[in-house]
Amino acid sequence: MIPLLKRLGLNKYNVDKTSHIEVNTDICLTCRDKPCTLSCPAGTYEALPNGRIEVHYERCLECGGALVICPYNAIKFRFPEGGVSFRYG
Ligand code: SF4
């Protein structure tokens, strides 16, 4: 069996020019544990020293995990025009 990171490395990405993820980072200021940064397998959400979140949308695997785990409903998501093509089932 191929390890997860190698499988993810087989994916093909067609990155959009604009982000398909919007985060209300004012809400993030009050979110102490920032679970989106821990749950995303692709490192899409980065906690900044000022308490806000930076979104690296080009890394997104479109799994929806951050939408589920965000306790404050601070994330708006739409599927990107391009997005990821999974090459390993
Ligand atoms: S879990 Fe939600 S509220 Fe908390 S830092 Fe992430 S996006 Fe912001």
TrEMBL record:
Pfam families: Fer4_10 (PF13237). It comes from the Archaea. One of its GO terms (molecular function) is iron ion binding. SUPFAM superfamilies: 4Fe-4S ferredoxins. Keywords: Electron transport, Iron, Iron-sulfur, Metal-binding, Transport. PROSITE patterns: 4FE4S_FER_2. Residues 19-50, 51-80 form the 4Fe-4S ferredoxin-type domain. The keyword DNA damage does not apply. PANTHER family: FERREDOXIN-LIKE, FERREDOXIN-LIKE PROTEIN YDIT. This is 4Fe-4S ferredoxin. It comes from Acidianus brierleyi.
